Please model this.
Amino acid sequence: MADVAPAVLGSQEEALVEVVELSKEFDVSPPLLTRLLQGQQKSFLRAVDEVSFSIPRGRTFSLVGESGCGKSTLARLVVGLYAPTRGRILIDGKELSRLRSRREQAQVRRRLQMIFQDPFASLNPRWRVRDIIAEPIRAHGLMSDRKAIDRRVGELLELVRLTAADGLKYPHEFSGGQRQRISIARALASNPEFLVCDEPTSALDVSVQAQILNLMKDLQRELGLTYLFISHDLAVVYHLSDYLGVMYLGRVVEWGAARNVFANPQHPYTRMLLDAIPDLEMSGRQRIPVRGEVPSPMDPPSGCHFNPRCPFANERCRAEIPMPIPTVHGGEVRCHAVEEGRLTEEVVRDALRRPLAEEEVP
Amino acid sequence: MADRTLAPHSPAEAHKGGKPPLLEVRNLQVEFPTRRGLLKAVRDVSFSLQEGEILGVVGESGAGKSLTGTAVIGLLEPPGRIGGGEILLNGRRIDNLPYAQMRRIRGKEIGMVFQDPLTSLNPLYTVGQQLIETIRTHTDLSEARARARALELLADVGIPAPERRIDQYPHQFSGGMRQRVVIALALCVNPKLVIADEPTTALDVSIQAQIIKVLKRLCHEHGAAVMLITHDMGVIAETADRVAVMYAGRLVEIGPVREVVKNPRHPYTRGLMGSIPVIGHDQERLNQIEGSMPRLTEIPSGCPFHPRCPEVFERCPRERPDLLPAGPSQAACWLYDPEEPRGAGHG
Amino acid sequence: MSALDPLHRTKAEEPPRAPSAWARFFDSDIWYSFTRSPVTVVSALIVLIFVVGALFAPWIAPHNPFNPAELNLMDGFTPPMGEAFSGNLYLLGTDDQGRDVFSTILYGARISLFVGFCAVLFAMVLGISLGLLAGYRGGWVDSLIMRIADVQLSFPAILVALLIFGVARAMLPRSMQGEMVIWVLIIAIGLSDWVQYARTVRGTAMVEKNKEYVQAARVIGIHPLLIMLRHVLPNVLGPVLVIATIGLALAIIAEATLSFLGVGVPPTTPSLGTLIRIGNDFLFSGEWWITLFPGLALILLALSVNLLGDWLRDALNPKLR
Model:
């Protein structure tokens, strides 16, 4: 069964990973010459905007959101593929950007690894599986004896329910699910404590997805792993997560213990996402109609980014950026309507009855 | 809305000797000759589609569901070809028609919606030009009337400010809006059948819900039947009337959507449904089907699912079951053979 | 582990022996498409004959045209199959110096192929290094390298080669020119030809470096130089191989052109191009064979190499398979 969540995130459990006011801006300006000739300004895309969260050791924190919400950028920031524009990332109290020497960096890198989305792109097609999995072992100098490495690779392959003999094959000889197992084996090769998983199952069929999700849960239990899980699939997130953050256009709009967020969604966007999931139960329950599309991250709406799609938006929502406020369930939410107590049962029920108007998002 | 400018296509055969199904596929085979022999990707698939009905076709990648759809519209990519069986539209065979004739049917009687809207839209022409051209190719409407019809369609699929958007190019539309345009394009000459191949797979959940809604509403209004091919059981549950489940090139179960979703009969469908995580169901592990779908080169003997089946018995590797009645559904599984003692408890 | 079911596999256990590289090659789609294309097989055979003929020229050729002691000036201008003054039979006739045209073609092909191979190798190494650097590193390094490439591309390759050849000539002492001329030729052709490789490699590298397996290597903490060499490089070699094959034909022709223009290999050790130039002087006085046979050899060689390149491009393109 799911654990009872702590009152405030990370306050009762020791945090392995802490992300503090992390922001990332990408320079999307046209080339210098074009800018000079046409008198354009430099322009930036704020993919991640002041995001904070922490993940207790041995737990799974999930980030959900639609395309362009910055969840994949956040994953790449955490593993160091991108350098943050502002903010800090701490792994076990050590701040990543403060590590200067390669030695120190390697120490931390060994402890965090990543699993990627596309099982067909994440393995070098010209390498044997054996060498792919051994790469982290060799890179970190964990073992030098050829025999010992082979043995370890065999163990890792068996850990992800493949056989040692599979190490001699090339990636193209495997199915998508099997490749994702190889990816996991590679990620586990350096004995990491923390895995960042960027939509590891979204390219897989459901039955294969079930295999991989089960494997990930087994591994978490066996090895005490901590996961940062990125996904757009709320059902998968429900199954896997202890904590959940919902992202919209670079901001985390709501986070908390996963069960609480699912049972009592506070932010209108969270409610909308939950209502957009196709109803496999075929219960025919009433749902908030989904409106509009995600605006371009290049030019996000002012105030609360969600205001053009929000049935409860008012002038304040259009003008003022909502600050995180604690929810009664121990999480946090960034919403003026919640803060003002405008989202009463009646108001929400009224929104359900309102006819679907497919007007355009400006 | 009621004033349709185009009369719906109604062939004379439709009234002869009872009402034949709108689409009937009989023992369809799709095969690919390769250097290592003939690969049979779709084997012996039969189903029919009534007018106005939405049939969901589900299966995992490699099950043959998309090939079945492309075979019906005659767009199999060489060297792929139909290796046997018949496809009948309104009682008329269409699988052996010459290319030019099939092309006419494709535009007029069968509409298409693909996963990636960009493959269905020409980036060099405005959305309006493409709609108007399609309408005028298949009807004798004047330019102005066709444009009015295009505007009406764009409004129908929920594109805001159609007067302005009609003269824009596909790249000026977002993914969800593009898919709406594709739906308008598929419906613009009132086809009787729409083949939708993973129409929502490339879209975000919130957009996906809107597209399903539009597709469902419009097909209902136009009286078009839909063959909805997808891997997403949720989409099927929301949309379809009946569901066909495919595995390793064969149809393993077909039945009313509620039955297939709530009470799946074939062990594969049962495994598939069980492997989908559901919000509100707390389970430590998901039900998983062991192994993976066999490659086309190594389809097991007998029932192709038997090596992965939790209920396999002696007969399964030896004989291949055909679709057998299983409650309101049909399942290709020996458990539903009335003469099979093992199946008594399941029948 | 009891809760974890061992993965059921549909495939039978394979013996834990990796198939050898040869076995893999003969089982590959490339080999299959090769055997299925008669034009390609014939082209490959012709190229093979040229290579073998060039390599073993001293043993195959009836005469050694580079050895002045063997030459008989009186045998000059013997027509093909004609009886020469000395009584020797010359299969394809002789040139003005009395050199056997057949032998000279063999020896000439040797020089042409050597220059071609070396020039392509040189251009490849240069182009791949610069292209990889530009594509993987990006930024101003990329801009600098690609602008140089653009500038060079705005001149015809042969002009660039001529220029480099001229500069090299002026710099080298006269005494060394004879022996260095082949190397100068290789560098000139190579330098005029690296841009194509750099551009292709840069483009492919830019695609590859964003693929997840490269990101995975970065997360592991592999040094960028190692990522370039061990991950990106092997995956950009496919298109390079195609260009290299077609580039070989171009290099052979470039060598022939330079030699024909008189700036290449000296007439004492003629390559195919030199032979054609020598014969060109006598073309209208009736001694057609001196030009025709080396010309045909050049065309056959270049065409075969080109056809091989075309086939390779198709075979390596998954879309056309």
